[in-house]
Amino acid sequence: MTGPLPVLGFSPQVVCVSMSGMTGTSQTNPIDTTPRSRISRRVGAVAPSATLAIDAKAKAMKASGLDIIGFGAGEPDFPTPQSIVDCAIAACADPVNHRYTPIAGLPELRAAIAKKTLRDSNYLVTPEQVLVANGGKQAIANAFATVIDPGDEVLVPAPYWTTYPESIALAGGIPVIVPTDESTGFQVTPELLDQYLTQRTKMVVFVSPSNPTGAVYDRAGVEAIGQYCVDRGLWVLTDEIYEHLVYGDNEQHSLPVVVPEIADRCIVVNGVAKTYAMTGWRVGWMIAPVDVINAATNLQSHETSNVNNVAQRAAICALEGDLSAVAMMREAFDRRRQTIYTMLNEIEGVTCFEPQGAFYAFPSFVGVLGRSINGRRPTSTLELAEIVLEEAKVAFVPGEAFGAPGYGRFSYALADADMQEGVRRVAALLATSTD
Ligand SMILES: *Cc1c(COP(=O)(O)O)cnc(C)c1O
């Protein structure tokens, strides 16, 4: 044989070597027989999600009968609109949905995504540039796995969504954290990115509106990042999952629309989870150049194949419908945003950046750390979150989960009255703190 079989991605020689190893007898071949290690280094290095740890503790406390108020949720508290649910019910009964369908997504859904992208972002793409995945999360994993080689560096602005660094590392890449704080509105600039740029930098992660900070880049800010990537020959992954949740004078601008020259090295991630209150349905997508989509589709064909057809049918109805449901949610989130931002800022030692998008407030607790609270003296927000959960029965996610110690993430995707009661409890507990 002169070369690898065209259908195999791995080298057949590797198989031959291990086969000959197996045919050698154990008597003549002194192979170490101590039990092999268990968890691979790659997966063993994945950090447990701090978000889920606090959430699990809060749920356990709730289950034991305690009255816990949770600010941990990263999902809308509204139900999926009934018209979308009805489409799914009909899809269950339709035999066309019983079988495997194309890996990259139902053709009707890919077309609906292309159409929606033009409608909402003014970004013209073809259905062949769309890969439907199990949520935005799988789209992100696909994207990194498809363009990152071992040792490639990816610039990740912090505070970051916990999944990015883990997903980059799983793809063999190196997440390079670029810290920001409220002095720049939690935004990166070309000058800041340049401090972390090396010969091995391949990609920049961009997310606006941001989880966890609620920051939204204006047009000039988006343009600066897009142009930076063009000038340095970098790829960019832009996460637009919160595109419809922007408040006040803030506006969402899609990066490849503001800077069209980047389109050939740009991957857009989006999904139905946040816009249509469909987190559990697991439908997201990536939009990228066709060669990237084809390679990522190959990858997905060996991992998960097509996304659940019923959920895809529901997503088609969501995208072909209007945006009235998200308009209603946006109004509620905006009202809560102003309340929580005001209430948090009224707490001594707490300062809160005004969220501009998504549904998170991201206050700093630096002025509280080191003080004595009921005889305990937290020196990190990780410890503070635990004390607040135990003493005030309020769960929030410590900033450590997002590469931002000293802060906390408060989701305002909960009823207004619960939200106010929760912040009041935190305020009351912290008011008892002493030097
Ligand atoms: C929720 C979220 C996603 C996608 O979530 P899925 O449920 O996997 O679609 C992607 N990025 C950010 C920043 C998010 O908060």
Supply database-style keywords:
435 residues; alpha/beta; Aspartate Aminotransferase, domain 1; Aspartate Aminotransferase, domain 2; 2 domains; seven-stranded mixed sheet; three-stranded antiparallel sheet; 11% strand; globular; disordered N terminus
Could you give a short account of the major beta sheet?
A: 7 strands, mixed
- Going by CATH, the architecture of the largest domain would be 3-Layer(aba) Sandwich
Beta-strand portion reads 5-15%
Task: Work out the radius of gyration.
Answer: 24 Å
Sheet with the most strands: spatial strand order? 2-8-7-6-5-3-4
Which ligands, by name, code or SMILES, are bound? pyridoxal-5'-phosphate
- The helix-and-strand class reads alpha/beta
Low confidence ranges: 1-6, 15-21
**What is the straight-line distance between the termini?**
77 Å
CATH class of the largest domain: Alpha Beta
Q: What is the share of helical residues?
A: 40-55%
One letter per element, helices H and strands E, the order comes to HHHEHHEHEHEHEHEHEEHHHEHEEEH
- CATH H-tier superfamily of the largest domain: Type I PLP-dependent aspartate aminotransferase-like (Major domain)
Give the domain tally.
Answer: 2
Shape field: globular
Total strand segments: 12
Number of helix segments? Answer: 15
Q: Quote the CATH topology of the largest domain.
A: Aspartate Aminotransferase, domain 2
